[in-house]
Design brief:
Layout (H helix, E strand, L loop, with lengths): L10 H6 L38 E4 L52 E3 L9 H10 L1 E5 L6 E4 L4 E2 L6 E13 L7 E4 L19 E10 L16 E4 L2 E5 L2 E3 L15 E4 L7 E4 L2 E3 L7 E2 L5 E4 L3 E4 L2 E3 L2 E2 L20 E5 L3 E5 L2 E3 L2 E2 L6 E5 L5 E5 L2 E3 L2 E2 L10 E4 L5 E2 L1
Parallel strand pairs: 2-3, 3-6, 4-6, 5-7, 6-8, 7-9, 8-10, 8-11, 9-12, 10-13, 11-14, 12-16, 13-17, 14-18, 15-19, 16-20, 17-21, 18-22, 19-23, 20-24, 21-25, 22-26, 23-27, 24-28, 25-29
Antiparallel strand pairs: 1-4
């Protein structure tokens, strides 16, 4: 893909500039592996140190609850009332939600993390549950709990689906040290299940009513890296009523992207679903990466409904290809996408207060063959800062695709 190399240019110069491939990542990273043999397995990653007991931390209001590794507290006369569930998304959003964006019914889970108190809600329990697959819920007590992972949870490719439902009271944390969740149908270490791993229907991964905090994919190089909280290649991804705060990936580089979520390939070109979710949302809560402070993808469509993307930052400098003397990157404060024929459709949402050191303070969209489309409907785009360049007449957006971005 093409990326404009000027920092601040006139509208005429911008429109005349030729863009170059891979503004949000290296298209070669998403190419199909040979069908004659399985693709090379992902290299062992530093986000998987030897297994160790994880920690789960109840909120301060749950001081009398058992803590991980501790003994149960004194028996109380009656169960503590449940704390209000954390909510996400744009409360003023009224955009219709597609059928496949509805929450999964998790009333009959295949497995449950925890046994009613924070003590059972450990990193190992989460990692094991994700590897086993199916519908996963949490029973960690009535108070909000944070489970800090000591290993990245990895989806096995033999799973038909994995659903993680935190009930609005569970935070999965990378502790600032590791990616939280990983799905890659082309990673032989997770089981190479088809000859067309870049376009297979499963696993389907749904995360709902969860918070993902302090994930960190810095230094991860498999398939181009990125995705501080979640990395997905293949299958399907749905994000429903979830929050992503303070996640990050490499802060410099022309190819890496997706401080919160990075996606390569979705089955038959179906879109990633994001509904009623928040990325950043408050001071100090934003996600960051060299490109795509919150979200990044190659050749992948997105359907985003009634969500909030605010306070996220594309930290790189030098665009793509990197200007001499710079590390490159800095495109798409909230969202950075590239590819050929794909679509980004945002409705009922808020995209504000994001920052890109280069292009597209809010949204960066490039379709190499000019067939891709960008639409925002009943969506607020304000206060998104493009320090380098943006499309004239569309503040906070850089767009190269079919026609013009459709905004309302």
């Amino acid at each position: 893909m093409n990326a404009t190399r000027s920092s601040v240019a006139s509208a005429a110069t911008l429109l005349a500039c030729a863009l170059v491939l891979t503004a949000c990542g290296d298209d070669s990273a998403a190419s199909a592996p040979s069908l004659a043999a399985p693709p090379s397995s992902a290299s062992p990653s530093t986000d998987n140190p030897p297994s160790a007991p994880g920690s789960s931390t109840p909120s301060a209001s749950a001081a009398d609850s058992p803590t991980a590794g501790g003994s149960p507290g004194p028996t109380s006369p009656a169960p503590a009332p449940s704390a209000p569930a954390v909510t996400a998304g744009n409360p003023a959003g009224r955009a219709p939600v597609p059928a496949d964006a509805a929450p999964v019914d998790t009333s009959h889970p295949d497995r449950t993390v925890g046994t009613g108190s924070p003590a059972g809600c450990t990193s190992q329990a989460v990692v094991d549950a994700v590897a086993a697959g199916g519908i996963i819920t949490f029973s960690c007590g009535p108070a909000p709990v944070t489970i800090t992972l000591t290993r990245t949870a990895r989806v096995r490719n033999a799973s038909a689906r994995v659903v993680l439902d935190g009930g609005g009271r569970v935070t999965l944390s990378g502790g600032g040290a590791r990616r939280i969740l990983y799905l890659n149908t082309c990673d032989q270490q997770q089981g190479w299940t088809t000859s067309h791993c870049q376009d297979q229907a499963s696993p389907e991964l749904t995360v709902q009513h969860l918070t993902f905090a302090d994930g960190n994919a810095s230094g991860q190089s498999a398939d181009g890296g990125g995705g501080g909280a979640i990395f997905v290649r293949g299958g399907r991804l749905r994000v429903i009523d979830s929050r992503f705060v303070r996640n990050r990936c490499d802060q410099a580089g022309q190819d890496v992207g997706g401080g919160a979520v990075r996606v390569l390939d979705q089955y038959h070109g179906l879109p990633v679903i994001v509904s009623g979710s928040t990325f950043g949302g408050a001071d100090g809560e934003g996600n960051s990466c060299s490109n795509g402070g919150a979200l990044s993808s190659i050749g992948v469509s997105w359907t985003i409904r009634n969500s909030v993307l605010s306070g996220n930052t594309a930290t790189g400098r030098g665009a793509n290809p990197a200007r001499p003397g710079t590390p490159g990157g800095g495109n798409g404060g909230a969202l950075c996408t590239d590819g050929n024929h794909y679509a980004v459709d945002i409705a009922g949402s808020v995209v504000n207060g994001n920052l890109a050191h280069e292009g597209g303070g809010g949204l960066f969209f490039v379709s190499n063959d000019r067939t891709g489309t960008l639409r925002t409907a009943t969506t607020t785009l304000t206060g998104n800062t493009s320090e380098g360049f943006e499309t004239p007449g569309h503040p906070g957006i850089f767009f190269q695709g079919a026609g013009s971005p459709r905004t309302s």
